[in-house]
Amino acid sequence: MRASTFDENLDKSSFSTASAYATATALQKALEVATDSNAHLVIGADTVVDLDGDVLEKPADAQDAVRMLSKLSGTRHCVHTGVALVFPRARDPVTHACPRVVTFSESTRVTFGRVPPAAIAAYVATGDAFGKAGAYGVQGAAGSFVTGIEGCYHNVVGLPLHRLSAELLALIDAGVLDEAKT
Is 7 a catalytic residue? Predict the structure, then answer.
């Protein structure tokens, strides 16, 4: 496994939706890794939190994390994960050029209860808010902020496992993985 070094700085305003932005970022990450890889398949993913059109990514610092979590307190928001599957050795069925690329996104609605400022500050002080879209990881202590999830829990963690599995199975059935090995 190799992490992407792609600088996640695409212009959000050039995308019609937060999920389209996340998918484009995931694609750039995967393409960047694929250029320096002998892999048959590279999977890129990017997760963002969408609060009424305000796209929340990873917090820049503790103050930014507190700002994000305060905004999310008592709200219902959407978590979008864009996924890109890049097959460096397989040809695109339309252009016949390598690589073959498949992208998709998954969205999950998350509801936060009211989170007291002291609880937000204590959570941010743990360091768990950093490196996570919206400044929280549902799989950790911030899971206590969540009163409901509509959709895929794993999507909120950062990778929609069921959807990824379904997409890969469809590609296996279509012979794409066999083509990617040649």
Answer: no
DSSP H helices in 37-132: 62-72, 117-125
Task: Choose among 124, 95, 105, 102: nearest CA to 170.
Answer: 102
C-alpha span between 48 and 64 (Å, rounded)? 15
Residue type, 87: F
pLDDT of residue 62: 98
Domain boundaries, the chain: 12-181
List strand residue ranges (DSSP E) for the chain, in order: 42-51, 54-56, 76-87, 100-112, 146-150
12-181, CATH topology level: Maf protein (3.90.950)
Q: If pLDDT is split at 50, 70 and 90, which confidence band does 37 have?
A: confident
Give pLDDT tens digits for 128-145.
999 999 999 999 999 999
Provide the CA 152 distance to its chain's centre, in angstroms: 13
List the catalytic residue out of 7, 11, 46, 52. Answer: 46
Q: How far apart are alpha carbons 56 and 70 in whole angstroms? A: 12
State the pLDDT at residue 82. 98
Residue 150, classified by CB atoms within 10 Å of its CB into exposed (0-12), middle (13-18) or buried (19+), is exposed
CB contact at 8 A, 128 and 142: yes
What pLDDT sits at residue 180?
Answer: 62
